[in-house]
Amino acid sequence: MIDFSKFEDNLAQKTQVKSDSTPTEALAFEEVIVSSDGTASNARSMGRVNDMMAVLLTAIVLLAPLPLGSSRPVPWLILTAVMAILTIAHGLLSRRNAPGRSDPARQHLWLIIPGAVTLLAIVAQLLPIGYGAINGVAADLAPDRLTLDAGATMIGALRFAGYGLFMILMIQVSENIIRVQRMMRWIYFGILVHAIVGLISFSFLGDRFLWGDKEYYLGYATGTFVNRNSFATFLGFGVVLGFALLGEKLHAPRIRMPGGRKQWSATTLDIALLICTIMLLVATLVATQSRMGLFATTVAAMFTLIAMDLKGGSHLLSTLAKASLLAVVCLIFLVLSGEGVIERALLSERDLSNRFDIYTATWGMIKERPFFGWGFDSFPIAFELRHPEGLSASLVYDRAHSTYLAHWVELGLIVGSLPIIVVAAAFAKSFQHLWRRKAGYTQAAAACGVILLGAIHSTVDFSLEIAANVYLFIAIMALGVSHLRRRQSAGGKRP
Q: Tens digits of per-residue pLDDT, 355-390?
């Protein structure tokens, strides 16, 4: 007897290959989870669950910037609560629909364990353990915990837990190449919408938020963020994604058409659309007048362009020529429309002097408590205890203006280095995927570029201490490090 259901399943798979992906990628990777009885019904059910979860996670990434970049405690708590609910729901559905499914998180213990250790260290700062002597503070006034601000540390711990749960969920849904490609495009065009809204608010609404007046950074595009540099990092991630997607389209296999290649094809139109949208993102980025944002984005975009071009089979000289041309175009664009950025770059001596004073004082605080730190999210209070004389006493310095220094001063040199090491390992893993894969490497290239951008910008700014940017950063990084599940045979064995 002929089993027609198998023919229907094969036909559905072939139709999906033609409509959603290139032939090479579809043959290389496909998420198929086979249950113990040899049927694929559970696999389809779990695939639908992951598809829905991917939509929700992408929506979270794109909605997080709306409440002022989620830079306040209320959005942190809401996001963490949502992550907890989604994690529980996904775990229960996985157990019901695919009980024999191997957990993708087990392949990323190198990423999860250091994060869990960091969270435990933050929680340990809330334990009733004596803080110890603090120079200039009476012994009876010293805190009875390892943090100067227990309330801030508690809320910060919940925020950090939300990051961890989001990372785990992203890994769970990032094994299917078609789903990964869709999420990349959703995120990219979502960032583009934020750029358009930012330009409208800045140019047509008189430099206001959509919901009211701005209090800070008047004269600079900030989108829905409070700080221009934070918005610049968010846009820079979009530019890197755009170059990764552009490289994918430029080197995608072409189908020979009867009568020769047409001047305008669907792929050509996609390339033209990506170029236009990238230019729009860059224009919005210039309107932020963020010096380091522009520099870090340029370096990361160059890296992504070179990586995708070389991976696509181009010669090194051709790739370097393209990169040089891009650099010249960026320079011309900056000269024509970036007067504010150039002026700020030339007149930055005072800013550099203030930053140097902050860095000097912060490093002194690190040396004073190198092992336990001053408490997660306790930098504002700790800095006031060591406020240098050269800085104005009328201002509140609530950021170290360097994410590296912020981690070390709040968590100590050992625990504070764990997030940095994890991100460096994620870059290495993404680069490994980029180097070895023959298909499905676009997200790895994007992850490398985004990590590079964040690493550069974090040296002199706190953009990756803003929750909206962290969620976007984690999403792209997770897509880059995730293992794509290879096709399995009917018996459940991998080829």
A: 888 898 999 999 999 999 999 999 999 898 887 777
Residue with tokens 């990586």: 307
Whole-number Å distance between alpha carbons of 475 and 64 = 12
Confirm whether 32 is domain-assigned: no
Domain count, the chain: 1
Tell me how far apart the alpha carbons of residues 75 and 77 are, in angstroms, rounded to a whole number: 5
| Alpha helices, H only, 200-265 | 228-250
Residues in the chain, overall count? 495
Identify whether the C-beta of residue 115 lies closer than 8 Å to the C-beta of residue 477. Answer: no
Distance separating alpha carbons of residues 472 and 62, to the nearest angstrom: 8
Domain that holds residue 297: 46-254+269-481
Rounded percentage of the chain residues whose pLDDT exceeds 90: 55
Structure tokens at 186: 């959703």
For the CA atoms of 3, 5, 6, 8, what is the dihedral angle to 10 degrees? 130
How far apart, in whole angstroms, are the C-alpha atoms of residue 249 and residue 318?
17
Cβ distance 427 to 448 under 8 Å?
A: yes
Q: Residue 430: inside a domain, yes or no?
A: yes
199 neighbors 221 (Cβ within 8 angstroms) = yes
